[in-house]
Design brief:
It is built from 16 helices and 14 strands. The protein is of the alpha+beta class and 369 residues long. The mean pLDDT is 95.
Amino acid sequence: MIGSSGDAETNAVIAAAERFTEATGTPVEVIPAQDLVQQLTQGFAGGNPPDVFYVGPEQVRTFQGSLYPYGSEIDDVDDFYPALIESYTIDDELYCLPKDFSNLALVINADAWEAAGLTDADIPTTWEELTAVSETLTSGDQTGLVMSGEADRVGAFMVQAGGWYLDDEGTEAIADSEENAAALAYVQENLLAGNFQFAAQVEAGWGGEALGTAKSAMTIEGPWIVGALDADFPDINWIAAELPEGPAGKGTLTFSNCWGVAAEGDTAGAVELVKHLTSPEEQQAFTEAFGVNPSRASLEEWNAEAQPEKAAFNAGVEYAKGQVAVPGFPSVATDFNAQLEALGSGSATPEDVLERLQKTLEDLLAEQD
């Protein structure tokens, strides 16, 4: 069962499953889910889950008791990027293999960049430089940088400042740190100055729309923006760069799913299917079919050649932070998003926002005990 992004992904997985059947004689039915989490929940509750399925970091912990942890059966697990493996490891046990990944990068309207007199030498590599070019690019109805006002974008600045939501063990909330305060202060300073804006502030649904409608010259998004711009704004000439460094160095966010295996059912056959789906050959086929980044480090050079326009998105995997893998975190993120709106308007300080975030995280962690 898969949570597909569209026909290209669905057809690619079906083709991979057919190749597995040809090689092994084992039939495989690929089911695109309408609501993956709901259907998995119902399947586990009814004792009839799919054998293999997409699952995200948070769901791995939610469904932990219903998953078969097959990591010890994978001989080449070291070929998968550590940041991705970490997202699916609980108490030193790897539950599932990451199927692919997407990182955030700085996406720039190349025509607006050139019109402002900027060159490749001006692509920002630090916060200070990002502020400077966003000021240069802000003119009339065009804001220098517009991004979605949410945890999954602003969180990148927290990483660049050396902060995060939880400690390395994922057991202690560290939201109200000086590092996170510095990150939010930087974002707010630029928001209030007008050279940054959140997408809602310019009446755009997300950063890609703001870029495509010339409401922004830059945005922070993942590689999914490529297909969206091609489909909805084909006249936009764009380039992508790695996100600028903050006080603690480089930082970005990575998003992924893994191939989960149900504890009930033919686990041996399911693991063999996963080995096939995560093989170098099948990961290459998926990249060619619908543009995802392979989760295998050995394919990094091949991927750079196959998708040169996405090099900036790919580069961040070495220093990216994965999703918070605590059940219930999305509700914390939703509340944080609302507080970020107040940060953007100036009605809340970074300290106000982080104090509330710290409390909601502590409450969430208490629920896990």
